[in-house]
Amino acid sequence: TARQSLKNSIWFYDLQLHEDEKLENYVESRMYQALENREFKMYLQPKIGLASGKTEGAEALVRWIPDDGRVIYPGQFIPLFESNGFCVNLDMYMVENVCRQIREWIDEGLEPIPLSVNQSKLLFYETDYIDNMKALLEKYKIPADLITLEILEGLALENIDELNEKISRLKALGFRVSMDDFGSGYSSFNTLASLKIDELKLDRAFLMRLTESDENSKRQKTIMKEIVELTKKLKITTVAEGVETKENEEFIRSLGCDFGQGYYYSRPISAEEFSEKYL
Ligand code: C2E
Ligand code: MG
Ligand code: MG
Ligand code: MG
Question: Is 27 within 8 Å of 77 (Cβ atoms)?
Fold first, then answer.
């Protein structure tokens, strides 16, 4: 409920205000135990195919739900996990959850919905990342093309040849690869030109900025239109993030976007709720 989430945010707000370090200590001292206790939950947010109007995919988003029922959002721990390295463990745990969920749907005789999962850049520096991914596919006996790996474009700023090599190996296993939050940071045409990605997710900042003054909004629209057109010419699928209104949807459909994702359709919901609603 709104009241609960307010309470939760105040709890963190307090800690952050007075005891930033204490929050970090709390998170760091509990993270391994939390992983062990299965306190990290997979939530799923539908990805709507704009042509069909149906849920044709979903993104897995982590929520940390300790025993006391608080819900802790990724913004409050992912950056820390990125800096202390724990993201590698958490991300592999999430990939395994995604595999397990797909296997469950198949076993129940349901048509599995393709899932996307966020991959920290740390994974790309792990020597056994690709082998571990392969092992998970074999363990759960699922086709990799039901899984899309979302990476951030910041990765492309580091070693683009090395990154491309890893992407090729993941694609050889059958995974789809997506560029997340495109347009939020140092996006460049070089990213589009050199990375062999299957999907591009337009950062929600694009749609947010449409409410700005007329002139700015016009420029934003032009840029979005051109990105979608260019992307389609490169045979890359497009997803607009942060669709919050009917107007947003109408606009992205007019651009020729393939998918929309956002609160207009659904917030991220628990995997159980998602299965009941969409499978
Ligand atoms: P992201 O991958 O770009 O995921 C989309 C975020 O936007 C999610 O926030 C989602 O709840 C939110 N969102 C979706 N639709 C709307 C909308 O219409 N309006 C607004 N205002 N927001 C919307 P969330 O779940 O808090 O996750 C934030 C970020 O944390 C993610 O951004 C992703 O970068 C990271 N993250 C989440 N789960 C994982 C994970 O398992 N591993 C890693 N490495 N990062 C994760
Ligand atoms: Mg994402
Ligand atoms: Mg995103
Ligand atoms: Mg994001």
Answer: yes
Ligand 2 centroid from CA 256, angstroms: 21
Residues 6+ apart with CB under 8 A from 23: 12, 15, 16
* 19 Cβ contact partners less than 8 Å away, ≥ 6 residues apart: none
The tokens for 62 are 């982590």
Ligand 3: centre distance to CA 152 (Å)? 8
Query: Distance between CA 227 and CA 177 in Å, rounded?
Result: 18
CB 39 less than 6 A from any atom of ligand 1: no
d(CA 165, CA 116): 21
Residue nearest ligand 1's atom 23 by CA: 242
**pLDDT tens-digit series, residues 252-272:** 999 999 999 999 999 999 999
- Establish whether residue 153 lines the binding site of ligand 1, counting it when its CB lies within 6 angstroms of any ligand atom: no
Residue 185's nearest CA partner among 199, 162, 207, 202 is 202
Under 8 Å between Cβ of 176 and 147: yes
Q: How far apart are the CA of 205 and the centre of ligand 2, in A?
A: 14
**Range list of H helices, the chain:** 2-18, 20-36, 78-84, 87-107, 129-140, 160-173, 189-194, 204-208, 214-233, 246-255, 271-278
Q: What is the pTM of this model?
A: 0.93
Tell the residue nearest (CA) to atom 33 of ligand 1.
118
What is the 59 CA–ligand 2 centroid distance (Å)? 7
CB of 262 within 6 A of ligand 1: the answer is yes
User: Is the predicted pLDDT of residue 10 greater than 60, yes or no?
Assistant: no
What pLDDT, in 10s, does the model give residues 18-37?
Answer: 556 777 788 889 999 999 99
Nearest to 116 by CA among 181, 51, 67: 181
Structure tokens at 51: 């042509």
By three-state DSSP, how is residue 150 classified?
strand
